[in-house]
Here is the input.
Amino acid sequence: MGNSAKTDNFLKAIKRYAKVQQSALDKEMKQLKQEKTKLTAEKAAHDSEKLIAERLEQKRSEQTGVLAKKTQEGQKALFLQRAQMTDEVFAKAEKRLTDYAQTAEYRKKLTESAQKIAALFGGRPCVLYIRENDSDFAESILKVFNGTAELQTDKTIKIGGVKGYCKSMRVIADETLDSKLLAQREWFIENAALSVL
Here is the structure.
């Protein structure tokens, strides 16, 4: 074999070797590309899921905030409406009690209230308070106390009734229609199932 044939064989062997190496490199590159594509797809899927989850949580949070605000606004409106209804009911009740305080039956009730206070104080000296409009009833009220009471008018009594204070006992006995109406209002608010949910 001549030099030229040896050279040709050598070149062919190098080409074959280069082809094998090229094929191996192509195969390795293809495999790396597939792995890289797979990793990129997995990362993209993970990032997408994370982004979707974050956006859903953000939207849920926004909706919860909106719902909480609407609920709070609704509760406030309901509270104000119930307060207004309560005010209206008790304004009507006060009007009826004021009308009642103009009747003969009221005069009898005023004397009965004075008797309750007198029984509580047991003859001890006391100060009695009535509204100015009830001054006409002073004599019948004082008669119940057999001279142990002093009578004064009290501008805080708007509707009517009698209130007594016994200094020696340190006791206030309140038989006014004002305090009874206030007590009913407090009872009504606590027990009338008008709570705001």
Observations:
- The mean pLDDT is 86.
- The beta strands are 126-130, 149-153, 161-166, 171-176.
